[in-house]
From TrEMBL, chains A, B:
Domain of life: Bacteria
PANTHER family according to UniProt: 5-NITROIMIDAZOLE ANTIBIOTICS RESISTANCE PROTEIN, NIMA-FAMILY-RELATED PROTEIN-RELATED, FLAVIN-NUCLEOTIDE-BINDING PROTEIN
Protein name (Swiss-Prot/TrEMBL): Pyridoxamine 5'-phosphate oxidase family protein
Biased composition (Low complexity): 8-18
Any coiled-coil regions, as ranges: none
Organism: Streptomyces smyrnaeus
Pfam families (UniProt xref): Pyridox_ox_2
């Protein structure tokens, strides 16, 4: 994770392996990128403001070869994407942390993870049909089954919502799996080594205080 | 989360509340910032490359009013931070996702979260004592107790490791808690509403394949 590619990869349907670390891989293939994106719903969106980087967490969804993020029409990168036909440069990064890798040496401590970094020009989506599709997709990506089980946005709400699209063109996937890669001369040291698994879990749903007791928990929530 | 402050907050020991959302808060106070930073160890580091934003996941630690991240000396932002005495502009964002908020309307769907966004100029740390302290802190922040229970970096490893510091000056904390904020006219709709809690958990440690069976699991791992 501490050795990122110095130039972003172009999205081509082939796979390559970096040589620097045994089990660390830079994957350019479509399937890896999609799998990592589809396994999450929170991304970190980077943009440039007055020459300085800004990184904000937000929800996203993938639809085919497009990433959608949404937000208030008042938020700066979304406003700029709306004003600028050429689009605004963004970076969308999705990271799943899978484990802490504890080696005999501090130097070889690492993390197991899967990440996707997508670069490109973000465009504000103005087509109404595409906007509705993107908003449904963002809800569905976080909670599959939910879009049909909630009230969709009315015209006033739609007008207050900006939807931004980033085409998946300049995108790379990177991941690490497996145990520590210790130096042979360190293997006799008296320290425990291995992996502490990390995962993100969903707990039992908590009903809203104003929810009628007549409304049961939907199946798409009991199944999680 | 979709309505970020348009200008970053200055770090002052007072707290303020944004008016736009009932339970969404922009906190400037030191305690909130520290608590959110100390509850995590993975950040998203943003920097600017050729005018475009780049966002990469990496480990961090807070020591007092300083954030440290480390990486290979070959990685670009760290190299640039080393070449440039004035520092390079970065944004470090830490996000803890606490829940998916399901409202009656798609529009009021939201997330519960805690996040810190720190802006500023990153400097490469050259002082050897500070470098060692920072590396220990990064290991300790991820796995408390581990720095003393592993082999510390030797001179060759230290030379291959870049440590970058960002002083916590221009930093803001933001969080959301609680249930959905539905429109009164939506409360009668037949959809379930509430919160699906989300948390990050650590599983049972997995010993390395080459670990001697004589070495027991350390206490700092059994306690997690």
């Amino acid at each position: 994770m501490d050795d990122p590619p110095s130039t972003p990869a172009t999205y081509t349907p082939t796979a390559r392996t970096t040589g620097s670390r045994a089990r660390e891989r830079l994957a350019y293939d479509r399937e890896s990128v999609h799998a990592i994106l589809d396994a999450g719903y929170l991304c970190h969106l980077g943009f440039v403001r007055d020459g300085a980087p800004v990184v904000l967490p937000t929800l996203y969804a993938r639809v085919g070869e497009r990433l959608y993020v949404h937000g208030s029409t008042g938020s700066r990168p979304l406003r700029e994407a709306g004003r600028n036909d050429a689009g605004v440069p963004v970076c969308v990064t999705v990271t799943h942390l899978d484990g802490l890798v504890l080696a005999k040496s501090a130097f070889h401590h690492s993390v197991n993870y899967r990440s996707v970094v997508a670069h490109g020009l973000a465009h504000q989506v103005t087509d109404q049909e595409e906007r509705l599709l993107a908003l449904d997709a963002i809800v569905e990506n976080a909670v599959p089954g939910r879009a049909d089980d909630s009230r969709r946005a009315n015209p006033k709400e739609l007008a207050a919502t900006a939807v931004v699209r980033l085409d998946l063109e300049e995108v790379s996937a990177k991941s690490r799996t497996g145990g520590p890669n210790d130096e042979p001369e360190d293997l006799g040291l008296p320290y425990w080594s291995g992996v502490l698994p990390v995962s993100t879990v969903h707990g039992a749903p908590i009903p809203a205080g104003d929810l009628s007791p007549d409304i049961p928990l939907p199946g798409y929530l009991t199944a999680r």
